[in-house]
Amino acid sequence: MILSTHAIVGGAIASLFPLHPAAAAIAGFASHFAIDAIPHWDYPLHSISLGKGANNRRLSFSRATLRDLSIIGIDACAGLGLALWMFAAEGSIWTIAIGASTAMLPDALQFAHTLYPRGLLHVLQRFHWWIHSKRALTGLFGVGSQLAFAGTIAVLARNIH
């Protein structure tokens, strides 16, 4: 899933626990793995590797790296902004931000694992690859399915309140 989808789902879940940021963080983090198990589309990265056995220790600053970082940054900021816009009410903005951020965190930890493949990062990465769908969706169907999924979760969360 793209980071925006993770953030929206994490924000939606956090909206169910507006006064419990720790629960929102745990649920947001867990949601990442649950929705990564669903077949989905991921945008291609040209300089950063995240596949099984990826090693970014020799990653250099280049146009491709800048492009990848820009796409990742825009995706993460858009997701966080959308989650806050859709779910934050007075007094819950931090809880929504925590839920959305922790829902995106496993992908950042996946990158960290490519730099330091040891200990808890290694265990988490093995779980991430085990649970991650091996079936990729492509093209407009891949993008549309994530929009539909994130929209459905957002509507469900807003109707639970």
Key features of this structure:
mainly alpha, 69% helix, Metal-dependent hydrolase, transmembrane helix, transmembrane
Strand content: under 5%
Measure the end-to-end span.
26 Å
- What is the alpha-carbon Rg in Å? 16 Å
Listing every helix as H and every strand as E from the N terminus to the C terminus, the arrangement reads HHHHHH
Q: What is the global morphology?
A: globular
Strand tally, please?
Answer: 0
Low-pLDDT regions: none
Count of helical stretches = 6
Overall residue-averaged pLDDT value: 92
Structural class based on helices, strands and sheet pairing: mainly alpha
How many distinct folded domains? 1
Helix content: 55-70%
How would a textbook summarize the main sheet? none
Protein name: Metal-dependent hydrolase
Keywords: Membrane, Transmembrane, Transmembrane helix
Describe this structure in words.
The protein is mainly α and 161 residues long. It has one domain. 69% of the residues lie in helices and 0% in strands. Helix 4 crosses helix 5 (119-131). The longest helix has 25 residues, at 63-87.
Which helices and strands, and how do they pair?
Layout: H1 3-14, H2 21-36, H3 63-87, H4 93-115, H5 119-131, H6 139-160
Helix pairs in contact: 1-2, 1-3, 1-4, 1-6, 2-4, 3-4, 4-5
Protein name: Metal-dependent hydrolase
Keywords: Membrane, Transmembrane, Transmembrane helix
Transmembrane segments: 66-87, 93-116, 137-157
